Amino acid sequence: MSRVKRGTTKLKRRRNILSQVKGYRFGRSTKERVAKEAIAHAGTHAFRHRRTKKREFRNLWTLRINAASRTVGFSYSKLIGALKKKKIGLDRKSLSALAKEYPETFERLAKQLKD
Question: Disulfide check for 76: which of 41, 57, 63, 66 has CB 3.0–4.6 Å away?
Fold first, then answer.
């Protein structure tokens, strides 16, 4: 059986790893072994932070809705409770957008809930 030289395969793998760590500092961007470890750690952080990002955005929306609802005489929980009673199916993201970008529309919605 003939001998197989692994030069091209090895180089391709090395280039792929080093292209993923472009911009990292110190040996993490140039040394293959350290770069592999950096990729593994970066992957775990990315997975965890994708989950955290969702949580943080929901908190931001809640904060914006609360601030806007207090200007029209509601607390956050009372506003959400009133929305559920009236069967208005607006989620927190769209309520937050209304409160931030269209405050007069948000006020009209709140007046509708008071009646």
Answer: 66
